[in-house]
Amino acid sequence: MILASQSPRRRELLRLLGLPFDVTISDVRETPRTGETPPELVTRLSRAKARKADLNGRRSALVIACDTIVALREGPAQAEILGKPRDARDARRMLRRLRGRSHAVYSAVTVENPGHAATTDLVETALTMRPYADAEIKAYVASGDPLDKAGAYAIQHEGFDPVERIQGCYASVMGLPLCHLARRLREWGMDLDTDVPTACQTHTDHVCHVYQEIVSP
User: Fold this and answer.
1) How many CB atoms neighbour CB 130 within 10 A?
2) Between 65 and 73, where is the model more confident?
3) What pLDDT sits at residue 76?
């Protein structure tokens, strides 16, 4: 099993499945196309990362790839896509835009398994940010933590703790919708000894209210 991502958060979550895996890179440009919606963008990028993963000759490997973006709705049919910030100034801009507002986080996880058709699960989570102060934004950005994260924040960051409310999958906001992935792997006959919802909630210290509808057949 190969994870096509350098994200430490995705590695951290994938370890909860209790299965051995290697990590590789996938060189994919993450620029949105003209008119592309947030769900279309994360789905396309997730599939491209799986397809372009450097397998180093391991053609029989199962490949897992994921992409995550933040979308701030600006109207009935418009949304501003917030990917990873370009620099500290861009991170501050994103955090000010999100402050006190609701937005959506989209994650798409693609699994390519030899002998099966590649599958992609798209997950949407709704969040509302708390009204954090400018001084908090400044200190958080100075820590460097936001610079490699979509929307310039980590939901799990204890010092900043930016999210006031969440409706949906917490792990998906971190970057890997773990229960969706586990469901897909079990459908393909993989033996998972781990109680994934319990492991995820224990690890994230978050009580999940949606896992039953995800893992139920």
Assistant:
1) 13
2) 65
3) 61
> Can you list the positions of beta strands (E) in 76-209?
78-82, 102-112, 119-129, 163-167
Question: Do you know the residue count of the chain?
Answer: 217
CA proximity to 32, closest of 45, 20, 16, 21: 45
pLDDT in tens, 93-124: 999 999 999 999 999 999 998 777 889 999 99
Q: Assign 55 a pLDDT band (cuts: 50, 70, 90).
A: confident
Question: How many independent structural domains does the chain possess?
Answer: 1
Beta bridge partners of 80: 72
- Name the one residue in this structure whose structure tokens are 């000759």: 57
Q: What is the CATH number of the domain that holds 145?
A: 3.90.950.10
Catalytic, 193? Answer no
Angle between helices 88-98 and 134-142 (to 10 degrees): 140
Each residue's pLDDT tens digit, 16-31: 999 999 999 888 988 8
**Looking at residue 216, what is its pLDDT?**
80
pTM reported for the whole predicted model: 0.93
Burial of 50 (0-12, 13-18, 19+ CB in 10 A): buried
Q: Choose, from 22, 27, 54, 67, the residue flagged as catalytic.
A: 67
**Residue 212: inside a domain, yes or no?**
no
Residue 104: give the domain boundaries. 2-207
3-state SS, residue 10: helix
